[in-house]
Fold these 2 entries.
Entry 1:
Amino acid sequence: MPTPHPDIAPKRVSMVVPTFQEAGNLPLLIQRVTRVAQQQGWEPELLIMDDDSQDGSDRAVAGAGVGWASLITRHTDRGLSPAVLDGLRRAKGDYLVVLDADLSHPPEQIPELIAALDSGADFALGSRYVEGGSTDHDWGLFRWLNSRIATFLARPLTHVKDPMSGFFAIKRETFEAGRQFSPIGYKIGLELLVKCRCKKPVEVPIHFADRQIGKSKLTLTEQLKYIKHVRRLLIFKYGKGTALTQFFVVGTIGAIINLTALTVALRMGLRASMAVGIGIGVSFSTNFLLSRRFAFTDVRNRALISDFVRFASASLPGAIVNYGLTMALYKPPGPIGSPQLAAVIGIITGALLNFLFNRYFAFRARHYKPRGAKP
Ligand code: GDD
Ligand code: MN
């Protein structure tokens, strides 16, 4: 057991625990955390962030008689992630630790997380999925599969093996450098990993024990929020890339639709001036629907008609240029004999114009600044 060195100032460690109806778990949690803190010689702080459980949690904390442990009753902005963020903002320590109240996360391993931060990690994660990590056996197939799928979805965001973990430590300065927190759902660790732009996360293997008392609050609704959360994080991380990717995907599909409609119209014996117009008209509509699908929720929530007006006003100049150029190139004695080839050049030119317009008028993400944008 490491003993505190008399010459070195004790480490200031703040532990934040989100709780909802965990009264039964709090006495043992406080006891185990206290033992660790004493052995390590820390200057500890335990912040129990409770969403007004009204189950005697406050008495359980007061009864433990530990001066540095306090229960904070929250009445607004309920939820696991907001509670954790709230606690981290109040915390006074240099090392910030987050763990569950149900003792799934062994407090005895907090020193390992802190040691990882001391050796250069900017995020230390208690992990079930690295070598040496494990979970209790009675994890059902559903929960296991669920956790694995969620982990897979987080791949573009981080390479850690257990990004779903709610047991982690971070230095105060790393946390304070974090920007634009928008915690939804359960994955506050992932939120911090991405929003604090952690570059050197380290995973410490843990045994994730099943809770003995009380029941899990992880409902299906909470899980569905995860998909929304991942999308927000992707936009945060790859902001510009996403808009650009969206433009290319929609644009390429639109070009294929345009050329197909044009060809069909010509085969039906329509004049080129009509066929080119039909190709543009059809892809104009499908591009609108596709852009709307791809767009961010806050934008999509608006009425269809107002979205269409925005889209049309931003895309019409491109469509007109497309039409004019295609016809100028193809219409005898124009330089290009194939209407499709002329259309490709018209599409590319029109798309470039549309890109500039779309960037500045339609379908812009309003709440999320792209990476590197000035605040
Ligand atoms: N303040 C507050 N408000 N706390 C909450 C809320 C809430 O709405 N919901 C849950 N908590 C607290 C619980 O009291 C517990 O201390 C902790 O958050 C975790 O909740 P559990 O209900 O035990 O969740 P779990 O065991 O299913 O999920 C845990 O493991 C997951 C990995 O399997 C959490 O650590 C997750 O973050 C983690 O992803
Ligand atoms: Mn739990």
Note: The beta strands are 12-19, 43-50, 69-73, 95-98, 123-127, 134-135, 168-171, 201-205, 207-208.
Entry 2:
Amino acid sequence: MRITVCCSDTKTAPWIDALRAALPGATVEEWRPGAPRADHAVVWAPPQQFLDEQPGLKGIFNIGAGVDALMKLALPRDAVVVRLDDAGMSVQMAEFVCHAVIRHFRELDAYERDAAQGKWGFRRPRLRSEFPVGVMGLGVLGARVAQALAAFEFPVLGWSRSARDVEGVRCFAGEAQFDNFLASTRVLVNLLPLTPDTENILDRATLGRLQPGGYLVNVARGAHLVDADLLALLDSGHLAGAALDVFRTEPLPAEHPFWRHPKITVTPHTSARTLRDESVAQIARKIAAFERGEPIAGVVDRNRGY
Ligand code: NDP
Ligand code: OXD
């Protein structure tokens, strides 16, 4: 079995070493133009040329949870596309989002500013019941995040494409229930995949329907958000702030207004990092299962785009 590895923005050598150790019977090589045809590919945002030269791939294993970069390409017709299924990301996402929500709710930025001036002062405690958190996307990451928020006793709502049942979470589904979900939400967390249906979903209409003093946590993809609409709603005072981890262009360009906006916190796409050891173990297990003809988790539905 031959496995080709083509991962942009990634140090590939340690991935290859780890895949070789996990699949000792396989030939694992970094892809170069003109490389031999392989059975499976391990990828992150590969160029179209890679896919054009590998028409016989049986499996394409993405080293991330989001497959939007891959779905824009012309893929070999019969290849099964497989995404990372948690692999240590859901706990990271839960801690990151809870931190962002709690920092906003407990006004920790304001306390930090006070401390910088040597000021000892209290703010009036806020009521948790006035900060309902709505999580868009109740998949592997969204469900974990929603449950972690519920453990802190925030009222938690969730929205997904099909109806879901998540303990401690008031669940909404589909376009028909989107407005009710938004109207009941003050802090909005985005954990949707980027697809033609969800691109630009965080626009003036969506964000404008949040309760006054709304807050946005975007940890999914930058192209979900219409940047200018967020800025307008922050400047009008309808939204109180935003924690943004993902951007249309990454790295976020130096001149982008998000960097300097006093109500926006920027982090560099770090909310849930791909962990190499856990990811390689998962991919190796899946390749072995696939070769034995067994079903595997995390297969992407190409029609849905996630
Ligand atoms: P999943 O595929 O497990 O979950 C996706 C969820 O979104 C599902 O609940 C799905 O609904 C819902 N959904 C999809 N389309 C729609 C729609 N049109 N309307 C309503 N709901 C919809 O994905 P993960 O939880 O694993 O990951 C989510 C995203 O997080 C990734 O696609 C990626 O973009 C991002 N991510 C960001 C990281 C970071 O570091 N910032 C790291 C990892 C991932 P249903 O349940 O009905 O299928
Ligand atoms: C992912 C990501 O999709 O890192 O896994 O954003």
Note: The chain has ten helices and twelve strands.
